[in-house]
Structure formats: structure tokens, C-alpha cells
UniProtKB/TrEMBL annotation:
PROSITE patterns: ZF_THAP (PS50950). The keyword Metal-binding applies. Keywords: DNA-binding, Metal-binding, Zinc, Zinc-finger. The keyword tRNA-binding does not apply. It holds the Pfam family THAP. This is THAP-type domain-containing protein. It comes from Acyrthosiphon pisum (Pea aphid).
């Protein structure tokens, strides 16, 4: 069982709700991860892993950037775009739903 290396994250590999990634072998990349994770009290060991919740699209190549301490920031940054997208979305969704209901 591996606990996510990210502080405030209590995800375990055993729960299988997300994927777990080992720190990259590349030193610079590893340093970047460590800096992003802001864990000054501990250095990642060979057994340390980070869960996919901290990666955009859950992809390791995106590097861990999603953390509890920047979630709000991210939300604020994303929200203007979301607001614009929100308006057309419900209409297109209802159209799709109606189409799905019609065939029978
Ligand atoms: Zn995690
Ligand atoms: Zn997770």
C-alpha cells in the first residue's frame, strides 16, 4: 500500500480510485515535482508515489499541478471560461436528451 506523497492528500494506492505514479527518474523533472508538491519536510524516496488526482487529465506527463492549496486559484482562473461555456451547454444538453428520448 502506497500513500500519496502530496500533503493533505490521503489517497492510498489500495483504494484504486486513482492511479499512482512514481517520481520520474529524470532529476530535473523529479525536482520540479518536488517543488510543485512543496514538501520540504521529506524527500521523495524510490517508493514515493503521487496519485493521478494531481495531474491534469490524470496524465503523468502533465506533471503534478493540482493541489488542495491551489484549487481555489485554479477555480478562479478557470471560472470565467466556464461561465461562457455554461450558457450554451444546457441547451445543447436538453436537445441531446430530447433526441435520445424520441426514438421509442
Ligand atoms: Zn494524491
Ligand atoms: Zn488520488
Amino acid at each position: 500500500m502506497v500513500n500519496c506523497f502530496v500533503p493533505n492528500c490521503n489517497h492510498y494506492s489500495e483504494t484504486k480510485v486513482c492511479n499512482f505514479f512514481r517520481f520520474p527518474a529524470n532529476k530535473l523533472l523529479k525536482l520540479k515535482w518536488t517543488q510543485n508538491i512543496r514538501r520540504s519536510d521529506r524527500c521523495p524516496s524510490v517508493n514515493s508515489q503521487v496519485c493521478s488526482c494531481h495531474f491534469i487529465d490524470g496524465l503523468k506527463e502533465n506533471n503534478p499541478t493540482i493541489f488542495s492549496w491551489n484549487k481555489e486559484k485554479k477555480f478562479l482562473f478557470v471560472s470565467p471560461e466556464k461561465k461562457n461555456k455554461r450558457k450554451p451547454k444546457p441547451t445543447s444538453k436538453t436537445v441531446v436528451a430530447n433526441e435520445e428520448e424520441l426514438p421509442d
